[in-house]
Design a protein that fits this description.
This protein is 77% helix and 0% strand. With 295 residues, the protein is mainly alpha-helical. It has one domain. The termini are far apart. It is built from 14 helices and no strands.
Length: 295
């Protein structure tokens, strides 16, 4: 593929992604304001800020000028995927998007009894009840897209590259789904909280292995970066080592800090998790039950 044609495709994809994200933000805003007008205590303002911030990070990783640089630097390529999986995904979920998005859509487009919607809702509910599936989805996506043959395919085609970014975002949403969207009745139990801490800790292990390989293998794993003009005056090997180190440190902070906080809370004598469901606010319970009905 010629370079001008590739740039044109990247530009077209960036416009499409920007349009989709802007439309999603408008629909969410419309639904959020409708909900706030009808039920002022149902969905807090910080959820709006979280969702819009998540969309902005998706735009940075998928449609901003940064996307043109990841063909020249593995470090930037790695940064994009980390933004999608560890920041954008949990922020989007923290925005409790299901109910505001449904309320934001015109009624003409809402069919609650659509078979596809029903099957998707059941699948997501099972995913929350079986977090191993979510953990495996996230790990599989990270490992699969870093295989040299698959990685080079994404580097050659802008469309495959956008598919790669989309799968990283989807994997991030699935990974964080059992943690962020669990209802208060489940998050309050001690066993579930311990499993969440273990879930986060185990997620660091495959990333540690991959990042250590990139740092210490001593050869260029992805030949596509060898002829590229290097940024920051780094050689291809140095760029690869920097990318691996970035992944190592970033994932450690992104997964182990929440796991550490959960562990400290569980070990704190002042915290009584057995009564947490009773302390959940009516607005929180209403939001979770409303989202369940929507799904």
């Amino acid at each position: 593929m010629s370079e001008p044609h590739a740039h044109m495709q990247m530009w077209s994809l960036s416009l499409v992604i920007t349009g989709v994200l802007a439309l999603t933000a408008l629909i969410y805003l419309r639904g959020w304001f409708c909900l706030r007008k009808a039920f002022p205590d149902l969905i807090a303002g910080w959820r709006l800020a979280a969702f819009i911030s998540g969309l902005f990070l998706v735009w940075i990783a998928g449609a901003s000028p940064l996307t043109a640089l990841d063909h020249r630097s593995l470090t930037i390529h790695m940064m994009k995927h980390l933004l999608l999986m560890t920041l954008a995904a949990p922020l989007l979920l923290a925005g409790a998007p299901a109910f505001p998005l449904v309320c934001g859509f015109p009624r003409l487009f809402i069919k609650s009894d659509h078979p596809l919607a029903i099957r998707s809702a059941h699948w997501l509910d099972h995913a929350r009840m079986y977090p191993v599936l979510c953990w495996l989805a996230g790990t599989t996506v990270v490992i699969a897209w870093h295989l040299p043959a698959v990685f080079q395919l994404g580097m050659r085609s802008p469309w495959v590259h956008s598919l790669e970014d989309g799968t990283f975002l989807l994997a991030g949403l699935l990974f964080w789904w059992p943690i962020i969207t669990a209802p208060p009745s489940l998050t309050g139990t001690t066993s579930t909280r311990w499993s969440m801490a273990l879930y986060l800790f185990l997620a660091t292990l495959p990333c540690d292995v991959l990042s250590a390989f990139l740092v210490f293998c001593g050869r260029s794993v992805y030949p596509g970066y060898l002829p590229a003009a290097q940024l920051f005056s780094l050689s291809p090997i140095q760029d690869q080592e920097c990318a691996g180190a970035l992944m190592w440190v970033w994932v450690t902070f992104a997964y182990l800090i929440p796991a550490f906080i959960i562990t400290v809370q569980l070990l704190s004598p002042q915290t009584a998790y057995a009564s947490a469901p009773a302390r959940a606010t009516p607005a929180a319970r209403s939001l979770h039950s409303s989202e369940a009905e929507v799904l």
